[in-house]
Each structure stands twice: as C-alpha cells, then as structure tokens.
Automatic annotation (TrEMBL):
Belongs to the AHA1 family. This is Activator of Hsp90 ATPase homologue 1/2-like C-terminal domain-containing protein. It comes from Hypericibacter adhaerens. It comes from the Bacteria. It holds the Pfam family AHSA1. Residues 22-159 form the Activator of Hsp90 ATPase homologue 1/2-like C-terminal domain.
C-alpha cells in the first residue's frame, strides 16, 4: 500500500492506511477527544448527523520532541480551533464531516468535507481518509502534507511508538507533495 495521498479529482485527495486493530480502537482515535488529540485535534464532537464539533489543533503538542514552528505557521503557535459539522456517523465504520471554512486573509473559504471509512482487514483496520471540496491547488497541497503527517502520527500512537515530531515531518511531506503533484 502506498502511503501517499492520491488525487482523485481536482478538489479531492484520498489516503489509505493499514493500522493495528481492532476497528473499535481506531474508531476511538477518530471520535474521542483525548485520543484524537494525540494525533490530530482534541475537542468535543456530537456523534450524530447534524452534530457539532470543535477541533483544537495544537501541532506542537503531538510529539514529545520539541522543535520550532516554521515561520509560515507562526500564527498557529499555541493552536487553532476549527468548527466542524457531522454529516454522517455509522460507528465504527464511517464518519463524514464538514470542516467549516471561515475566512482567510479577508476572503471566504468554502467548507471542505472529510470522510473516514474503516474496514476490518484481519487483525488490522483499513482506514481511508477522503478530503473533498478543496478550493484550490495550494489548499490541496497543504492538506496533502497535513494528512500525511497526521496519519503517520496516528500510526505511531496505535503501534506504541513515540510520535514523530510534527513540524519537521510536515515540512518534509509538504516538499514531497509539491514535487509529486506538480501537474495537478
């Protein structure tokens, strides 16, 4: 299985990972604030269609390895909060959310949509993450590097390893996706 995200449409990227199970354990890492906060973002989530969630991203806290925040992300030092709306919830197999766009530099950004699909694969779990409605190439590239990094940290947690540092891993993946997705 290739770890790299695959662009399936001009505004969509899909990732697939094979993770240690059981499926309920991986589901908990998607839906429970404390566990989700170890690899992505903490915060409350109403697990029902129409449910609200608030994700607090604090990338520097995802690993015990401390490193400086890259200059272009200095505004995110200390964390960023995002409002989420749950569209579908079918435990422990499928979770679909709208990530509310808000504003960026004074202009409205459209909402994007994230789907998590889980399927048992022996003693492992196949996780698919599909991020749709990405407004432009720059956002697609940023999301690609971000998901690749977050999913690597999720795997570290599930496999009992010390999570890798977020920022240096993210910068490496950003450079990699810039090269891989030149024609997109």
């Amino acid at each position: 299985m290739n770890d790299h995200g695959v662009v399936t449409a001009k505004d969509t990227i899909r990732f697939e990972r094979l993770l240690p199970g059981p499926i309920e354990r991986v589901w908990a890492y998607l839906t429970e604030s404390e566990k989700r906060g170890k690899w992505l973002a903490s915060g409350p989530m109403e697990l029902k269609p129409g449910g609200k969630a608030e994700f607090r991203f604090d990338h520097s806290s995802l690993s015990p390895t401390k490193e400086p925040v890259p200059e272009r992300y200095k505004a995110k030092t200390g964390g960023v909060t995002m409002q989420i709306r749950v569209l579908e919830c079918d435990p422990p197999r499928r979770l679909v959310m709208t990530w509310l766009g808000g504003t960026k530099e004074g202009t409205m950004r459209q909402d994007s949509e994230v789907t998590f699909e889980l399927e048992p694969a022996g003693d492992k779990v196949r996780l698919r993450v599909i991020h749709r409605r990405l407004a432009d190439r720059a956002l697609l590239l940023g999301v690609a590097g971000g998901w690749h990094t977050h999913l690597a940290i999720l795997a570290d947690n599930l496999e009992g390893r010390v999570p890798r540092p977020f920022w240096s891993t993210h910068e490496k993946h950003n450079r990699d996706y810039e090269e891989r997705l030149k024609g997109v």
